[in-house]
Amino acid sequence: DESGIESLDYEVIENYAYWEEQAQRGKLYVGYYVMVKWFFALLIGIGTGLAAVFINLSVENFAGWKFALTFAIIQKSYVAGFLVYVLINLVLVFSSVYIVTQFAPAAAGSGIPEIKGYLNGVDMPGILLFRTLIGKIFGSIGSVGGGLALGKEGPLVHTGACIASLLGQGGSSKYHLRSRWLQIFNSDRDRRDLVTCGCAAGVSAAFRAPVGGVLFALEEVTSWWKSQLMWRVFFTSAIVAVVVRTAMGWCKSGKCGHFGSGGFIIWDISDGQEDYSFEEFLPMAVIGVIGGLLGALFNQLTFYIAYWRRNYLHKNGNRVKIIEACLISLITSIISFGLPLLRKCSPCPEADPDSGIECPRPPGMYGNYVNFYCSKDKEYNDLATIFFNTQDDAIRNLFSAKTIHEYSAQSLLTFLVMFYSLAVVTFGTAVPAGQFVPGIMIGSTYGRLVGMFVVKVYKKLNIEEGTYALLGAASFLGGSMRMTVSLCVIMVEITNNLKLLPLIMLVLLISKAVGDAFNEGLYEEQARLRSIPLLESRPKYQMRKMTAKEASGKRVISFPRVVKVADVVSILRSNNHNGFPVIDHERNGETLVIGLMLRSHLLVLLQSKVDFQHSPLPCDPRASRFLTDPLYCRHTISEFVKPASSKGLSIHDIRLSSDDLEMYIDLAPFLNPSPFIVPEDMSLTKARISFMLHLMMQVYNLFRQLGLRHIFVVPRPSRVIGLITRKDLLIEV
Amino acid sequence: DESGIESLDYEVIENYAYWEEQAQRGKLYVGYYVMVKWFFALLIGIGTGLAAVFINLSVENFAGWKFALTFAIIQKSYVAGFLVYVLINLVLVFSSVYIVTQFAPAAAGSGIPEIKGYLNGVDMPGILLFRTLIGKIFGSIGSVGGGLALGKEGPLVHTGACIASLLGQGGSSKYHLRSRWLQIFNSDRDRRDLVTCGCAAGVSAAFRAPVGGVLFALEEVTSWWKSQLMWRVFFTSAIVAVVVRTAMGWCKSGKCGHFGSGGFIIWDISDGQEDYSFEEFLPMAVIGVIGGLLGALFNQLTFYIAYWRRNYLHKNGNRVKIIEACLISLITSIISFGLPLLRKCSPCPEADPDSGIECPRPPGMYGNYVNFYCSKDKEYNDLATIFFNTQDDAIRNLFSAKTIHEYSAQSLLTFLVMFYSLAVVTFGTAVPAGQFVPGIMIGSTYGRLVGMFVVKVYKKLNIEEGTYALLGAASFLGGSMRMTVSLCVIMVEITNNLKLLPLIMLVLLISKAVGDAFNEGLYEEQARLRSIPLLESRPKYQMRKMTAKEASGKRVISFPRVVKVADVVSILRSNNHNGFPVIDHERNGETLVIGLMLRSHLLVLLQSKVDFQHSPLPCDPRASRFLTDPLYCRHTISEFVKPASSKGLSIHDIRLSSDDLEMYIDLAPFLNPSPFIVPEDMSLTKARISFMLHLMMQVYNLFRQLGLRHIFVVPRPSRVIGLITRKDLLIEV
Ligand SMILES: Nc1ncnc2c1ncn2[C@@H]1O[C@H](COP(=O)(O)OP(=O)(O)OP(=O)(O)O)[C@@H](O)[C@H]1O
Ligand SMILES: Nc1ncnc2c1ncn2[C@@H]1O[C@H](COP(=O)(O)OP(=O)(O)OP(=O)(O)O)[C@@H](O)[C@H]1O
Ligand SMILES: [Mg+2]
Ligand SMILES: [Mg+2]
Questions:
Q1: pLDDT tens-digit map of B419-458
Q2: In CA terms, which of A31, A376, B430, B705 is 20 to 30 Å from B110?
Q3: Which ligand is located closest to the Cα atom of residue B6?
Q4: Can you tell me the distance from the alpha carbon of B149 to that of B391, in angstroms, rounded to the nearest whole number?
Q5: What fold does the segment set B27-529 form as a domain?
């Protein structure tokens, strides 16, 4: 609890205020509500699309300008060129880490574990704030533009989620819309829907993969599923695609500086390998295994390093974080500049005028065949082509078909080892950082290595090294992130090659299985590290051995229906539970559980004080209070809503006079009258092991699939009043 | 209940037999279980893929042979050609309707509403039998090959589901695997997972759209979602794609007769329109509206006709069904042969040697520009090109780009009206029938019409009529079936054109919204007609006004823990409820709900008789019975499993002697000890309207999302024994 992580209330609290609100709403309101939802989906799409375009534009321009300048200078002096290169990188990385540490600490890292946590039902304060959004956008421009071994895709997902959450909130706090309008997205559930849209929009923007975005949101981040939402999420993704596409079309005319190429598909390899033969399955399986091993190793190493950083290094304050990032930038610059220097250049292959690939590429342009520290003009440096280049171009080169023998095995191996190490070390610095693009680079390098080997062995077959590079990329991502369907679809969408789908799938199956043998996925590991309590889709095996009563453990702290303010305060002070059962005492002495009271709602009542009463009796509906106050409820739903991404009120913030403490509150109108309940376990045979052990599995599923926060374990009921079956739920209109 | 529709038990009954079974299972078993699941997913994929290839091959060969023969004959006599054409169609349709009526009545129609029902939790007896599978495969070869206005895609989904279900069962009843092996897929829940795989495999096979298949299963048919399953479903889909692709590759060498062309993508239009401008959004929106209107009209008309058929025409027996189908075949043949005769031929456009399109197409081949009843050689009949052709080719022609001015508006309009009417009339005959391909034909016709108009109006733009045809197809399917994400993805996958995704989406948004204003989707309407009680994703508005107690209604019929056999029999005879609460009487006179007993389990107990006892006391675990019989439970789980797709035992099948009737059964070991319970509603203020009205919404969601069959409404509990939160579910290992 010290960490400030708290569950969200995805369950709608159906208290009196809620009911009043619903009753006031007409049919028109429902239509309006739906319309606003769609409108917001549109806005999220446009916003995320624009943010993505902005980030892409900036990164490409910074990086392009950097490389152009460096190349211009090294014509005269390699030392001067090196210094300029290092300096530019350093400035960019410094600005990134400075923004993040000083201004938006929650913007560090990829943000996907946090978003995953949010959609799983736990809130990490600060992750969806405006400053986080700003920090994420500008931070990732700096860190990616500065040439670190990280990507901008993860941060874009976080960006999308921030935009979505801010929109949902912005309606209420910033733009002062009409009061009935505000109340639309005030529940955690509505916000969750928006954030889901934002998350899909982020992936869609990052990879220009609308279907992949929807599937990513569905598979990787959400822990529940609503078919109504799917369509809206898809709509958002498509809007993103349209926005990005339009912006790209506009850039084609050259108005965007260094940012020019790149259409709707990022790394088009649709002209790659047409067909594959059965002999190739073996090397492909090998790629899968390598991906699983390297991916699992990556997860493990980053976990250790992040653990060490978190518990030792970063405890020393922001200055250390800044120095660390700058140091890593320095190392990265030295390696990416220095290693290609050591590499001998190769002569250009014979030109193929059809392909449009020039060797060496013309100065100041992107492309294959970088001429770097070569003695002759018609030579290129294969290591520089992948190392001393923007990531996008490096990947395009690695994926490229029809360029057999472009790379030497030695260069690829050098690159693999160095880049892998850099990626591991860079992960966890205090800058926005995604792991997709580094993963693709690592994977496609060893994929291409295997491909080269395959080309050598199976001489007769029509094999493209680029295909193997793609499979390698898929295998590494699969082995590290353990995504399945969404990753497949994203790979297909970014490469525009549907034919390779079964192969990608095969490789993913293997790499995921291999990786799962060692550890959990990257995001799960990171969530564990940050102690984000994710509920996985399957309960742990130990759950099988546990009864609901055992699981819930301690004595329950509950409230009576009418409670003294002093008691409320002392109970709230004495623990930090967030929900309390409310027990009513009937006149005949029996007790009755009438609902669940949330801590946050209690705090609102304590702060507003309007519901305090002098009498310790329940307020009688037939009494004067009802007659004078037709609405009965003095609160609107919106008062109970805690602001997004903040801790909300605390009991220590509330000041009460001693008079106040002597008063009472009747909790009945404010509690959730229909909490979820499960009967305690029955053990039929006390003598032998009880046979009713599986209840907790069921409770787990109930909890997770419905996104609950509290479940009451109650005594077995004495009778059944009614029985609901399918027929009862199908009322004919 | 007369209809034999009963809910499935997707909830696992955790009775003693189940527990015994689980306890005996080691870690190894879990691995084995997972392996078998994947193996079955593989088998389903292969099976469905082969079935699809077989159907496609047969249809193409029958149809190809038919057209080739007809064309050969009409060189001499149009009358003879017509007669032969009619006769072949008649024979094919007759064989189809004969197989279905005589042998597999459940194979009629598309089967998707039934599968949807199955995955929603209701079982229609007979839909997943082996004979249904056979009827479906051969029936759809006949009906599609016979040229009726229906498709083979819906039936393929049903075929996939049948294969999956049979595999799950086959393990148990046919191949006599070892007894521990059998018990793997014996619960309805496991079968549901398999059928989901089969369903996705069917779509994947029908459209060669693996991603679309997964999304179809997710969006359209299942009502719940497990992220673990998604990966397996996707695997199955990909296997199907591989199988189909391999078979196609094999056919390219010409070994498959008339079946030759067609690769992984069915109607490749990737060389279509590159870009679109804002002016085009208006005509596209118009297409969306038309799609919504025509789709809703289609649903309404088919509903009426199917209603009439069901309640009047088809009551007269199978002979009527056969005559009806033959009559429709006759009409279809006459129209598709006769109308092109009335149409004047157009001269061929100038040949473009690059495109490879010949005009007129060479005799005996497929392609554009059919020369039919033309006076000159260099002419073609545009109506015959779409009408007197296989559906696949007609659609390819309609979608084709670079063939502006191929069709006259008059021909397209004629075709639209005639084919729409034929599709409406054909729907509901007793043959396997899908609505995808007819929908695509109808939609692409009016789409192309709009496209022609747009080409005329916006003269300067680079517009392809084929793009509009595609959008038209999407709009009609969206307006009729109301699918969203899956339809988008299927359209993209079958046309291999990712660029059009946002346009397809726009059109679908509009057509679905327009259609929804009039009626429900095609499958929902048909499910309603067949009284399949589908639980929709959202509860009806009326649910809001209902309390759980009101919904459940009548007096509950329950059993005591130890019950007299005679009582069981009389209770089971007196009603047809499928679940009964079991109430135990404690020594102190209090009662306690100890679980839920299923009718089907009671029937098994009555039939086997081994659990009958003479004493009316609960069997004491410390008594001799436990000592002598260490397993206590004389039943294995598999005994309680009812065979798939059949009604199972009935109380009227069970014969008991009068001695038996005097004995007792202790139900405790057989009941489900952890049924779902909800507390009855509390009304705080009896004087005013109760404010606890929303409970039923919650109950509905609980019921649907967890796939329940029974929920007990119980009195409010008197105390809370424990409280479960997220923390309690996160046990650290
Ligand atoms: N009213 C209560 N009385 C007794 N024990 C409670 C009560 N509420 C919660 N607990 C127990 O205290 C522990 C932590 O409670 P807490 O309310 O902080 O839940 P949590 O899992 O941290 O979720 P949240 O994010 O809502 O705080 C859990 O083991 C829970 O069973
Ligand atoms: N044991 C019972 N005692 C009293 N009423 C019951 C009982 N079981 C079911 N009912 C009621 O009888 C009606 C129909 O019961 P039935 O058991 O046939 O359920 P159903 O909705 O048809 O589902 P199923 O497919 O399981 O048969 C429902 O309204 C239900 O509330
Ligand atoms: Mg807590
Ligand atoms: Mg029934």
A1: 999 999 999 899 999 999 999 999 999 999 999 998 888 8
A2: B705
A3: 2
A4: 9
A5: Clc chloride channel (1.10.3080)
